[in-house]
């Protein structure tokens, strides 16, 4: 028979407090999502308030203002290995790489201007409809034209048969296929050139017909568009010249015209809403030649605890909800402080290890993994993974995600290691400088890299080349026109 009993056991268990859970959640959020969450907190918690940019800062629990950044990330002097060996060389001193939130960069200050382009881009259908409305067609043809525009996809091609367009107009509008073809000619004369085509051949032909009739090679180009595009794609120029019975010079002019045409005319108008990237940190060169890492002061709203409300809270039970909101506000502020501290630590470590990349470009990228940074900043790899995901760094070479600086390594002949990113950059450079008549094969690229001390197999070169979007040597070879 089972009897209830009490047993005492000793053990250890890791428990995540609500504060820690909130800090981890905020740490992995990108800037835009974090901004939205802070705005939501401002609306729901009366103990939080947004600071006035022009107002004076009060003492107390504040975050995302200059004083908090300075307390969160005090001025530090970080020296590179070169500085440790040559302490008397001020040009190589990392001493100016102070990581503070109070940024004196050109990106900060009251005069900071945010340049955002218009996100209300005009679609291809809107562009064509506007032109249709400006035309002098009667009401019936206007309805037919609107139906044709509805049948045009984002690339600029008609995706429905003319018979189906005519049938869709009924019973409001009775139109024959001839009527649709007549209005289609009017649509095909609109901007962009080539819109309303039913095939690539027709699209190129529409663009060529807009050229001056005296343009050299125009008639030959029209003949190529009508029935010889496959030969152009296969680079069968000798056969093409015999079939068209033209000279080598005439064929050269015609091919130039054909290649200048846009096979997807709608792409020049079709507007996709721009996706903006707000950098989390800025990296700038200092006057002494080092690199300074600054948090982006515009990335987060400036918030603080509302001291007026906080001072009114008494000890009675009537203020229990306000005390809860005050505690939540302080937790949020501390979590944001932790986020900024961690971002700056990781960014500073990345910049220090990848200073050669900042100086000279991709070919000097150093191999680095999450464990390297985790050991340097004394954090867990999972924390570094959260920090480097969807976090961006603005440098003079562009805006990069933190993860861009992490790559695998390949052993060099001298015992050192080289980043896979640097090897990709070398492959891109070799292909860009190759002879178009004799492009480099993957084996030849591997040999050249081996001569430079980088031991990579041919299949590795092929993998990196494909990742760069570079076609094989057989497709890169230029076939002369004969």
UniProtKB/TrEMBL annotation:
Residues 119-309 form the RNA polymerase sigma factor 54 core-binding domain. Residues 70-80, 95-122 have a biased composition (Polar residues). The keyword Ribosomal protein does not apply. PROSITE patterns: SIGMA54_1, SIGMA54_2, SIGMA54_3. One of its GO terms (cellular component) is DNA-directed RNA polymerase complex. Residues 321-478 form the RNA polymerase sigma factor 54 DNA-binding domain. It comes from the Bacteria. Residues 70-122 are annotated as: Disordered. GO terms for molecular function: DNA binding; DNA-binding transcription activator activity; nucleotidyltransferase activity; sigma factor activity. NCBIfam families: PRK05932.1-2, PRK12469.1, rpoN_sigma. Belongs to the sigma-54 factor family. This is RNA polymerase sigma-54 factor. It comes from Povalibacter uvarum.
């Amino acid at each position: 028979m089972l009897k209830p009993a009490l047993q005492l056991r000793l053990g250890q268990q890791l428990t995540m407090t609500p504060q820690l859970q909130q800090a981890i959640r905020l740490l992995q959020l990108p800037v835009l999502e974090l901004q939205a969450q802070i705005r939501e907190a401002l609306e729901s918690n009366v103990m939080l308030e947004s600071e006035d940019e022009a107002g004076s800062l009060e003492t107390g629990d504040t975050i995302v203002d200059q004083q908090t950044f300075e307390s969160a990330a005090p001025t530090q002097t970080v020296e590179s290995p070169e500085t440790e060996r040559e302490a008397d060389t001020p040009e190589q001193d990392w001493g100016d790489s102070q990581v503070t939130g109070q940024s004196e960069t050109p990106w900060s200050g009251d005069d900071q201007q945010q340049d955002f382009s218009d996100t209300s881009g005009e679609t291809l259908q809107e562009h064509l409809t506007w032109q249709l409305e400006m035309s002098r067609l009667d009401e019936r043809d206007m309805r037919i034209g609107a139906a044709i525009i509805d049948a045009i996809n984002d690339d600029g091609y008609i995706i429905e048969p003319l018979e189906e367009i005519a049938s869709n107009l009924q019973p409001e509008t009775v139109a024959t296929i001839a009527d649709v073809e007549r209005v289609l000619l009017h649509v095909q004369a609109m901007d962009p050139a080539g819109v309303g085509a039913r095939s690539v051949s027709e699209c190129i032909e529409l663009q060529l017909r807009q050229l001056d009739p005296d343009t050299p090679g125009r008639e030959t180009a029209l003949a190529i568009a009508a029935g010889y595009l496959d030969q152009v794609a296969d680079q069968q120029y000798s056969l093409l010249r015999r079939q068209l019975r033209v000279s080598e010079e005439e064929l050269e002019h015609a091919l130039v015209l054909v290649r200048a045409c846009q096979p997807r005319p709608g792409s020049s108008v079709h507007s996709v809403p721009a996706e903006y990237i707000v950098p989390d940190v800025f990296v700038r060169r200092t006057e002494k030649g080092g690199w300074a890492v600054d948090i982006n002061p515009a990335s987060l709203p400036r918030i603080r605890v509302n001291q007026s409300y906080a001072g009114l809270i008494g000890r009675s039970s009537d203020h229990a909800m306000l005390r809860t909101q005050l505690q939540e506000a302080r937790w949020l502020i501390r979590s944001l402080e932790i986020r900024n501290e961690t971002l700056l630590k990781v960014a500073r470590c990345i910049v220090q290890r990848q200073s050669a990349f900042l100086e000279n470009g991709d070919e000097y990228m150093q191999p680095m993994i999450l464990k390297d940074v985790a050991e340097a900043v004394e954090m867990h790899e999972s924390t570094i993974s959260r920090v480097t995901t969807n976090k961006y760094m603005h440098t003079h070479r562009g805006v990069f995600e933190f993860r861009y600086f992490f790559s695998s390594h390949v052993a060099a002949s001298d015992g050192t290691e080289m980043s896979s990113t640097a090897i990709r950059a070398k492959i891109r450079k070799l292909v860009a400088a190759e002879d178009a008549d004799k492009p480099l094969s993957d084996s030849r690229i591997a040999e050249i890299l081996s001569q430079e001390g980088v031991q990579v197999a041919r299949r590795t070169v092929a993998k990196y080349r494909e990742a760069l979007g570079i076609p094989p040597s057989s497709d890169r070879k230029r076939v002369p026109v004969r």
